[in-house]
Amino acid sequence: MVRGKTEIKLIENTTRRQVTFSKRRSGLFKKAFELSLLCDAEVAAIVFSPTGRLTTVPSLTPTLRLLLAVITFFPWFFTRQID
Question: Where is the MADS-box domain (predicted)?
Fold first, then answer.
């Protein structure tokens, strides 16, 4: 049985949005961990929740701290829209 394509749009209900965010964040981190193991690669993911809470995989290493400092110093570069 084939599923239809899911339309990607903002979830209006804040509770549903938070639940979806948590589930998708867990899935993203699981994929990052699997990629790291399967390909012997260094993988990092930085996610800010809608409330501004920071979560990273792996935990904050010196390299990730440096990257976060750059993101904090140049927020306009990382938040611009790409056409």
Answer: 1-61
- Contacts of 37-45 with C-beta under 8 Å, sequence gap 24+, read none
For residue 54, give the amino acid letter: L
68 vs 1, residue with greater confidence? 68
User: What's the full length of the chain, in residues?
Assistant: 83
For 14-79, CATH gives 3.40.1810.10
Q: What is the CA radius of gyration of the chain?
A: 16
Instruction: Give the tens place of pLDDT for each residue, 15-47.
Output: 999 999 999 999 999 999 899 889 988 788 888
Nearest to 20 by CA among 32, 30, 38, 8: 8
